[in-house]
TrEMBL record:
Pfam families: A_deaminase
Cofactor: Zn(2+)
Reaction(s) catalysed (UniProt annotation): N(6)-methyl-AMP + H2O + H(+) = IMP + methylamine
Protein family according to the UniProt entry: Belongs to the metallo-dependent hydrolases superfamily. Adenosine and AMP deaminases family.
Gene source species: Psylliodes chrysocephalus
Position of the signal peptide: none
Domain (Adenosine deaminase) ranges: 19-340
Protein name: Adenosine deaminase domain-containing protein
GO molecular function annotations of the record: adenosine deaminase activity; metal ion binding
Example GO BP: adenosine catabolic process
Superkingdom assignment: Eukaryota
Record key words, sorted: Hydrolase, Metal-binding, Nucleotide metabolism, Zinc
Length: 382
């Protein structure tokens, strides 16, 4: 540890080193180049999948382009075997990035070779297989796509509830996602999910839609995804904001996703600023780390850098994310224990070393990783 203590560490390395909590990651938006290749994608479709990151400087970006990219991943994960490979690769990537808790979400699809039920079984099996191998706690949220009609959504819900009863330790919640300009929030469907014991995380206000936002806030989900156009300064209505302030529902913030899709102009204009200022609950998330070529460390770094957040405050956000997660109370305790251990045993001195003014984008220091061996803690965790 001695050389770790004497080292000056950049914000970027600090964000890589600390254990992280990910609450909003879509499976088929989180595939890296290597796995896309292994799944049979050619160079053209891989660069198509990542093309939004190439046009970051374009002045008129929009969300529509994003939703044309997911079918590339969907085509590559049509069989159980490939879906399993994709899930494993995503879990591995998060683990490599020092994520200790991952809530992965995915939309069950029926394909020629697999029913919706088999889709869920495959992802659950992979999560279980990875548990001891990668030492990362993974939970599953199952998504309903906004394009699904009522019958199809009801069918999905029935299967999701059945699978939740079979795998209560893994399947924790349900999500509404997909193109925000299509479809609507069906409160009856999500009420049934809630009664069945599923936690609810609803994509909300990714684009301006004050009427739907009111419906979602009245329903009162456990968490909200994005919530870009909720605050009045970001095209939300005062009425909805007042309602939100009564409920204080945790918001899953996905900075790079919003900037690349153009729903937020620049990082420094992200609505996370309002949440930080007013001490409202939020988590820092990747959304689609493959499509947006990001990871949890980079997202934590953006928050520190653009909003002048101190290491201790960032670490506090991490504790808050554990609290907002769908893990059991016992699991939350163990996650907090890991965070505490890293804080006190390994990183005590780093907090005094990291200064905003010292920010430099130096390459990862491999030795630093070796010094910070988290393995003993994981032995205690499981
Ligand atoms: C809304 C999104 C999204 O479910 O096939 N998805 N929905 N807003 C976003 N912001 C950019 N990013 C991803 O993963 C891909 C699916 O997640 C949803 C879309 O429905 C997309 O098809 P799964 O694993």
């Amino acid at each position: 540890m001695s050389n770790l203590k004497s080292k000056k560490i950049s914000i970027s390395n600090f964000c890589k080193l600390i254990p992280k909590i990910e609450l909003h990651a879509h499976l088929n938006g989180s595939l890296n180049e290597d796995i896309l290749k292994q799944l049979g994608c050619d160079e053209t479709s891989i660069s198509e999948y990542q093309k939004l990151t190439e046009i970051l400087n374009k002045t008129s970006r929009n969300l529509d382009e994003c939703f044309h990219l997911f079918p590339i991943a969907h085509n590559a994960t049509k069989t159980k075997e490939k879906l399993y490979m994709a899930t494993k690769s995503v879990i591995k990537d998060f683990k490599k990035d020092n994520t200790i808790y991952l809530e992965l979400r995915t939309t069950p699809r029926s394909e020629e070779d697999m029913s919706k039920e088999e889709y869920i079984e495959t992802v659950v099996k992979c999560i279980n297989d990875c548990k001891s191998k990668y030492k990362i706690l993974v939970k599953l949220i199952l998504s309903i796509n906004r394009r699904q009609d009522d019958n199809n959504a009801e069918e999905s819900l029935k299967i999701i509830i059945k699978m939740k009863e079979k795998y209560p330790d893994i399947i924790k919640g349900i999500d509404l996602s997909g193109d925000p300009k299509v479809g609507t929030f069906n409160e009856n469907l999500f009420e049934k999910a809630r009664i069945a014991g599923l936690k609810t995380s609803i994509h909300c206000a990714e684009v301006k839609n004050n009427e739907e936002v009111k419906k979602i806030l009245d329903f009162g989900p456990d968490r909200l995804g994005h919530a870009v156009c909720l605050h009045p300064a970001y095209e939300g209505s005062q009425e909805n904001w007042d309602l939100y302030l009564q409920k204080k529902i945790p918001i899953e913030c996905c900075l790079t996703s919003n900037v690349i899709c153009g729903t937020v102009e620049r990082y420094e204009e992200h609505h996370i600023q309002e949440l930080i200022n007013l001490r409202l609950p939020f988590s820092i998330c990747t959304d689609d780390k493959g499509v947006f070529r990001t990871n949890s460390s980079k997202e934590y770094e953006h928050v520190m850098k653009h909003f002048k957040i101190s290491p201790t405050d960032l670490y506090q956000f991490n504790y808050n994310s554990v609290e907002q997660s769908f893990a059991s109370d016992e699991e939350k305790k163990r996650l907090i224990h890991v965070l505490n251990k890293v804080l006190y045993l390994f990183l005590g001195d780093i907090f005094s070393m990291v200064q905003i003014k010292d920010y430099c984008d130096e390459p990862v220091d491999e030795q630093l990783y070796r010094d910070l061996n988290l393995a003993p803690m994981w032995r205690e965790f499981y």
